[in-house]
């Protein structure tokens, strides 16, 4: 641009030496001014956000979550960040949630009703306006009676229910809103019909001969009992309507297996160069799978695995695909072993080469060579022994059980193999054992 600037100055009658001087000043200025201005702005913003995060942590994180609402990976990351800081992130609540993420009176972060897919912006605004104008909704029938049914339809009801927004009303559970016994209709349909009839009666303004109200009140419909969702089903629907798991994670049932046998999280695979040549053991739930053909007709597949940290998509060709394709099924829990290495074609890019796949459900039983119960000599008493024995009886299996007694005063450790008990090393057993304060669990693998 220098030549054009100098020529422009000359054509406008400016001294060439002045033009050169100005250009040189600009060049010197450009070497530091742009970076300096940015660093000044960023340092101010960094100070302000650090102050907010340190002193108003929950409010700050609620704002960050709201800002990231359109990016579900970021939402998952920041929810985990909140939990690390001891801040509970709770699901939607019909009497507490706003449109976006907000902090409640207990300092917990609530999902906003606006984050629920299928609820509809107009419906959410209508619900919040009614609640602010006339107070909290007492139950599902009070909710249905008060809201505007032109904005809040059947789909809105079902999405709110599946997200957990109605969970505060313990008389109903999520499955009742979308399913029914044979020959019956769902709770959602019953509630909508009930509300429509009430509104029709109010519009007709029925009165008796003397001009007063009829004094009769329509009773709410009977709610049939129905089997609730399993924990996995509940979480599946949560993710479907909100985009993330809220009340838990499907992998919570495999925490023992993941902590014991997995060497890294899936998020680590986002940066493959430092992992070149290294083995990895991973665990997660299959969230997506595709079976495809190349242009030459060779079969291949894509499988996306998800854990607490994020997700990663594995691509398998040829024999690898044929060997492992039966595991490519959304919703199943897998343990994957492999290595990061360069492929043998094209630009020889790095990839994660799968060597072995197993079901996560069976991993603890198959790979645990022994379960070790660690106990201090000072804590041994009849009550502790009874608790351990009852646990071993409940989870009887084929895995050897070791008792390791520790005497800290004498610095003596004594390990003994149980002749009476062999156990089934599964997540629930380990979780129950950890509830006994005096007991520590170890794994011989």
Summarize the structure in words.
This protein has helices at 2-11, 16-30, 33-55, 57-67, 72-84, 121-134, 140-146, 154-163, 187-204, 231-242, 255-261, 318-324, 363-367, 382-394, 427-434; strands spanning 89-90, 102-103, 109-110, 279-293, 299-306, 311-317, 333-342, 350-359, 370-376, 396-407, 412-423, 440-444. The chain is of the alpha+beta class. The protein has 4 domains: 2-31, no CATH class; 88-242, no CATH class; 253-361, Nucleic acid-binding proteins (OB fold (Dihydrolipoamide Acetyltransferase, E2P)); 368-444, no CATH class. The strands form 3 sheets. It has a 5-stranded antiparallel beta sheet. The protein has a 4-stranded mixed beta sheet with strand order 11-10-9-12. A 3-stranded mixed beta sheet has the order 1-3-2. A hairpin with a 7-residue loop joins strand 7 (333-342) and strand 8. The termini are far apart.
């Amino acid at each position: 641009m220098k030549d054009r600037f100098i020529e422009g100055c000359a054509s406008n009658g400016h001294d060439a030496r002045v033009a050169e001087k100005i250009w040189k000043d600009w060049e010197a200025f450009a070497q530091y001014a742009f970076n300096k201005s940015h660093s000044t702005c960023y340092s101010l913003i960094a100070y302000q956000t650090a102050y907010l995060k340190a002193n108003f942590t929950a409010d700050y994180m609620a704002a960050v979550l709201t800002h990231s609402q359109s990016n579900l990976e970021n939402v998952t990351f920041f929810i985990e960040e909140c939990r690390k800081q001891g801040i509970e992130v709770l699901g939607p609540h019909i009497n507490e949630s706003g449109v976006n993420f907000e902090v409640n009176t207990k300092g917990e972060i609530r999902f906003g009703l606006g984050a629920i897919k299928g609820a509809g912006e107009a419906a959410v605004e209508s619900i919040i306006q009614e609640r602010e104008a006339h107070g909290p909704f007492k139950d599902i029938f009070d909710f249905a009676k008060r809201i505007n049914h032109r904005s809040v339809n059947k789909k809105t009801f079902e999405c709110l229910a599946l997200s957990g927004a109605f969970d505060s009303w313990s008389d109903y559970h999520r499955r009742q809103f979308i399913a029914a016994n044979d020959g019956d209709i769902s709770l959602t349909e019953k509630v909508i019909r009930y509300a429509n009839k009430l509104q029709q009666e109010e519009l007709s303004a029925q009165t008796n001969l003397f001009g007063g109200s009829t004094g009769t009140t329509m009773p709410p419909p009977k709610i049939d009992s129905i089997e609730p969702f399993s924990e996995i089903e509940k979480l599946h629907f949560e993710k479907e309507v909100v985009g993330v798991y809220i009340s838990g994670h499907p992998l919570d049932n495999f925490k023992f297996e993941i902590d014991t046998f997995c060497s890294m999280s899936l998020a680590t695979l986002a940066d493959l160069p430092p992992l070149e040549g290294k083995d990895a053991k991973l665990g997660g739930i299959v969230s997506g799978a595709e079976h495809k053909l190349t242009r030459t007709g060779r079969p291949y597949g894509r499988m996306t695995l998800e854990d607490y940290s994020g997700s990663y998509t594995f691509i398998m060709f040829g024999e690898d695909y044929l060997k492992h394709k039966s595991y490519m099924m959304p919703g199943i829990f897998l343990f994957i072993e492999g290595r990061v290495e360069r492929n043998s074609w094209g630009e020889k890019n790095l990839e994660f080469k799968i060597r072995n796949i197993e079901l996560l459900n069976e991993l603890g039983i198959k790979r645990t060579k022994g379960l070790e119960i660690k106990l201090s000599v000072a804590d041994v008493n009849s009550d502790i022994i009874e608790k351990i024995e009852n646990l071993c009886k409940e989870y009887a299996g084929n895995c050897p059980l070791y008792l390791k007694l520790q005497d800290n005063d004498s610095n003596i450790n004594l390990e003994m193999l149980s002749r009476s008990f062999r156990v089934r090393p599964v997540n629930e057993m380990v979780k129950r054992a950890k509830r006994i304060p005096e007991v520590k669990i170890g794994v011989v693998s």
